[in-house]
Write a structure and sequence with these properties.
Number of strands: 26
Radius of gyration: 22 Å
Oligomer: single chain
Distance between the termini: 18 Å
Strand content: 25-35%
Structural class: alpha+beta
Helix content: 10-25%
Length: 387
């Protein structure tokens, strides 16, 4: 049943009258007042997540030199970028490493600095060394430049991430190897010595909108401390996985592609991250407001950690070989309690995502909306929901 429109909610935001709560707060409100009353009283629910997101990067136009160069290869602080674009345009991926990095030659590698760290340094206002080479043309005669750039000197710096904010994710274990294994899910001890997960659970944006009723192409979001938008479904978006009776997916499912102006972002919410034995990435803060347009939507936003299940997956043999096998289901309350049971054994859990930071993001977004600094946008196209 519809209760409000985007236009009505934005009008209330402009007047300073909007009722905005976080995805944690809506749980108690629905329990106390019921779905029907909560849907009438609440206008917006804010969500948040802060986690490593490898499929991310930035387009940068570094402002051309005099004489001009048609950049063929470009490095930022020694990190290779993709320069197969127009003369001074490059794309820096967060998992890029310097050529001289030892990688895993001395195992496990440390991977101290990479593309994600360059983006954090750039947003922090630090100077970045740029080196570019070219073969020279009549209109772009220069063949090499070495200079320094920063966030103010570049024409554009646009965070453009093809896959962020995964809707649910695996719990990773090491069942078969007799040594520590080093994965993008962190260090996994032998004999199921630990279990790592990566989601903010009841605060996570796409878990609060399981069928993408409000999150779609054109949705304005909190991105890296500034503002961004959803520009498409993310790579590997898959809404067809098994769902629970509450509609919530029970395995990795939806993703979003997002974009935003790096010049308006903060290094507090974009952190270059080193993963021992694996590589580098960028830990990103994302928050998405969910307008309460109907009773169904408020019901989805009231989902609790104990109602969100995910799969336990082996990363020592099954995952590397593409074997799709689950060693059990657990919910996020169990995971956040610190221990889960696997094959009769109590196994300590660890999170790659920060619940504390996710909560901060949801609170920041709530304040921005309540102060009238952040209005909601209606998607111009929905994401594929599998319905």
């Amino acid at each position: 049943m519809k209760v409000k429109t985007y236009e009505e909610i934005n009008e209330r935001i402009r007047k300073g009258e909007a009722v905005v709560v976080t995805a944690e707060e809506i749980i108690d409100i629905v329990e106390e007042k019921g779905i029907k009353k909560a849907a009438k009283e609440v206008d917006v629910v804010t969500t948040g997540t802060f986690a490593p997101m490898c499929s991310s990067g930035a387009f940068i136009n570094f402002k051309n030199s005099k004489p001009k160069i048609k950049a063929q290869k470009v490095w930022l602080n020694g990190i290779n970028t993709y320069a197969g674009l127009a003369a001074a345009d490059i794309y820096l991926g967060v998992t890029e490493l310097p050529d001289e990095d030892l990688l895993n030659k001395v195992f496990p590698g440390n991977f101290k600095y990479g593309g994600g760290h360059v983006i954090e340094d750039l947003v922090a206002g630090k100077h970045i060394k740029l080196k570019a080479i070219s073969y020279g043309t009549d209109c772009y005669p220069k063949k090499e430049i070495e200079t320094v750039i920063d966030i103010k000197s570049v024409n554009q710096a646009i965070l453009t991430n093809p896959r962020n904010a995964y809707q649910n994710y695996n719990v990773a274990i090491n069942k078969y190897s007799d040594r520590n294994i080093y994965t993008y899910m962190g260090i996994l001890k032998p004999n199921i010595g630990n279990a790592n997960y990566c989601s903010a659970g009841q605060l996570s944006p796409l878990l609060n909108d399981p069928f993408y009723k409000t999150i779609g192409i054109g949705t304005r979001i909190f991105l890296g401390g500034g503002e961004g938008y959803v520009y498409w479904e993310g790579t590997q978006h898959n809404p067809y996985v098994k769902r629970g009776p509450n509609g919530v997916v029970r395995a990795p499912a939806g993703t979003i592609a997002v974009v935003g102006d790096l010049k308006g972002m903060s290094p507090e919410w974009l952190k270059g991250t080193s993963i021992t034995g694996y590589g580098v990435t960028l830990t990103i803060g994302i928050g998405i407001p969910i307008p309460i347009l109907s009773e169904d939507i408020v019901k989805y936003t009231a989902v609790k950690d104990e109602d969100i299940y995910t799969q336990i997956v082996d990363y020592s043999k099954d995952y590397p070989n593409g074997v799709n096998k689950s060693y059990g289901e657990v919910n996020y309350k169990q995971l956040r309690d610190g221990y889960i049971e696997i094959e009769g054994k109590q196994v300590p859990t660890g999170a790659l995502s920060s619940y504390k930071k996710a909560r901060e993001i949801a609170e920041i977004l709530k304040r921005r909306i309540k102060k009238g600094r952040f209005e909601l946008t209606k998607p111009v196209k929905s994401l594929s929901s599998g319905e």
